[in-house]
Predict the 3D structure of the following.
Amino acid sequence: MSSMIVISATAIPDHLRGALSRWLLEVTPELYVGTVSARVRDELWTSVAACAGDGMAVLAHPDDNEQGFTLRTAGTRRREPMDFDGLTLIGFRRESQEMANRL
């Protein structure tokens, strides 16, 4: 069964952007949206996670949980999804807060 996915990717290699644009629409720079099967979604995400390099990426797709979706991330991000009693919340990395306090 196909379902809609959203991938936000920042500073990824050009060949990965090309691979994503074969399956998804790039609706704004670095934001990809499309409807694909779970197998294609997982294969795309495997490629993104393996090739992200210094870039960052987030995948959101429908799932059978309380929120109705799941987030996956690749690369180093300031914001991180965290599990809180089955709910996904977004937390900020402490390193970023310590750096901000120094400035």
About this structure: Strands lie at 2-10, 25-28, 31-37, 56-62, 69-74, 79-84, 87-92.
